[in-house]
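I hope you will forgive my troubling you with a question about protein structure. The matter concerns a single protein, recorded as an amino acid sequence and a row of C-alpha cells. Please examine both parts with care and let me know of anything in them that strikes you as inconsistent. Here, with my thanks, is the record as I have it:
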Amino acid sequence: MGNTGTTSRFRSALVMPIAALSIAGAAACQMSKSSNPLAPTVAGPIKGVVITKPNALEPGQDWQIRMRDQPVKLMIQNADTSGVRTISYTFEVASDAAFNQIVFKKTGVPAGTTFTTVQLPEPLPTGRTYWWRARAEDGANSGDYSKTISFVALAPVVLGTPAGVSPVGSITTTAPEFRVNTGGKSGPYERVVLTLQVANDAGFTSIAATFVNDDNGGQKIINENYTFLNNKTYFWRVQARDLGDSQAFSGWSPTLSFSTAVPAPTPVPGPVGNGAWQSCGSTPGEALVACIRSAVYRQSTEQDAFAVTKRVAWQLRGLGYGLLIKESGENILTWQGKSFSISRVCHPSGYPVKVLSDAGPGGGNGASWGPDPSDNVCAQPGRFWPALNPDLP
C-alpha cells in the first residue's frame, strides 16, 4: 500500500507540468493573432473597413509615350479609407489587358499627400501598347483596382543621314543649285526638313548661307537663286530634322566643297573722266554723284563703279556718311581687306543710299540718289565703315 501511494504522487508530479505547458502553448498561439486594427498581426480583413479605388491619372488613356518621356512615371490620385490603418499602393503594368503578362509590379508604395507617383526603373520596349492600374491596401484590407488605362510606348524617330551630290569642284556660276540624296526615316516622324549650310571654312565657323527645305524623300534639288562671291571656295553639308514632337535629327552629311570661277564679262567702254572729282562739293544728292561719275568713270566694271561710290562717301564724310560692308551677294568688291557694296553708301542715320543704278559689270552704273530709310542695314554691327581715302590702293 505504501509503495502504491508513492507511485501515484510521483505520476501526478510528472503530469502537472506537462498540462501547464500545454495551456501556455495554447495561450501563445492565441496571442499570434489580434483584433486590434493597428496591430501588424491583425487577423484577416477588418469588418466594416472600406477602401475606395484610386484615380489613375498619368499616363492617360491612349497617351503616346516618346523615348524622351521614358522611363514612364505612373501617377494616381489617392484613395480614401474608412479605417484607421495607413494605406499603401500596388502598381502594375502589363503587356495585355487581362494582366496575364505583367512587366512591372511594385507593392507597398507609400501614399503621397494627395497624389502618389512611382517611376519605372527602366524604359519599356517601344512600339507596343501597355495597360496599367493601381489599388490601395492597408495590410488587412484591399480596395479594388483603379480603372485600367492603356498607353503606347512609341518607337523612336530615326532619321538617316542625307548625302550631298553637287555642286562639287570648280563651277561656272555664282548661284548654284544643290542636289541632295535624302536619308531613310522610321518611327512616328511628322515634318522632316533638310538644313543645308554653306560655310566659308571647312570647320563651319563662318556660315555664308543657310537653306531649309522640306524633305520629300528621294533626291532633293535646293535652288534658292542665292549669289555667292566669285573666285571663292565654299564648303557645304546637310542635315535632316523632324519638326514634330520627336525633334529628332540626323548626323551631318560628309562635307563637300565647290569653287566659283565665273569669267569676267567683257568691259563695256564708257566715258573717260577728267579726274577733277574733288571739286564736286559735298552736298548729298544725285548731282554730286553725277559730277564724281563724270570725273572718274571709264568703263562698266565693278572697280570703276566702286571708284565713284567710295569718292561719294569721302566727299560726304564730314556729314557722317560711310561705306557699306557687304560680305555676300552680288556687286561686292574687296578693298583694304574689307568687302564693300560697289553701289551704296551709308547714311549717318543707319540706312543705305543707292548712288549707282544698274550697277555691276556690264551695267550702266548711272548716277542715282536712292535713300532707303526703311532698311537699317547700316545700323547693324559691323556693317557701317567710315569713308576711306579713295586714293588708297
In short: Residues 1-33 have pLDDT under 50 and may be disordered. Residues 277-386 form one domain.
